Amino acid sequence: MNTLTARPAADLDELVTAVRGAVARNAGWRETASYVGDALREHMPSPGLLPADLFGGERGTYRSHRLHVEPDGSFSMVAIAWQPGALTRIHDHVTWCVFGVLTGVEYEDLYTLSDDGTSLIEAGSNPNLTGEVSGFAPPGDIHRVRNIGDEIAVSLHIYGTDLSRIGSSARRFYDLPVQS
C-alpha cells in the first residue's frame, strides 16, 4: 500500500467522517449521492494528499489509488490520475458515485440506451473543472470519462460499495454503436 504524503491524514479523516455521516442518513441512492456530494464540496482534499507515484504514467492511461474502504463496506474512496488522452470504455455503475476534480479537467460524455437496446444515444458532455463536484446513481448513469487536455487531471471518486470486495465500480461496459 502506498503512503499518503504532503498533507496531514486529518484531511482525509475529516472527509471520511463527513461521508460516513451522509451515508448514515439511509436515504435512496440519488439522495445519498447528493449528501455525499455536499460532504465532498465541504472537505475537498488537495492533490498534495495523494502519493506522488499516482501522477506517473504514459499518455492515454489512467491510474487509480484506493484511499479508503469503509469497514462496513458502505463506501470506498479512490483517487484517479488521468494522463492527457486517457479514456475509459463506456460503462455504467453498480451503485451511486460522487466525484470531485482535484486538479485539471475531467470530461464526462453521457449516453442513454436506445429503446430497443441496440445502440447508445449521445446525451451530452460535461467538462468538470478543478474544484467541481458531481455525482449520479443508477439507472441512467451510462458514461465515459476522458482527459482531452494537455495536463494531468486528478479526481477523487466515492462509490457506494466496497471496492476491495468487488474490484470495480463498473457494472457493465457498452460496446454499441453511438447515435448523435
Automatic annotation (TrEMBL):
One of its GO terms (molecular function) is dioxygenase activity. This is Cysteine dioxygenase family protein. Keywords: Dioxygenase, Iron, Metal-binding, Oxidoreductase. The keyword Cytoplasm does not apply. Pfam families: CDO_I. InterPro entries: CDO_1 (IPR010300), RmlC-like_jellyroll (IPR014710), RmlC_Cupin_sf (IPR011051). CDD domains: cupin_CDO (cd10548). The keyword Chaperone does not apply. It comes from Actinomadura napierensis. Belongs to the cysteine dioxygenase family.
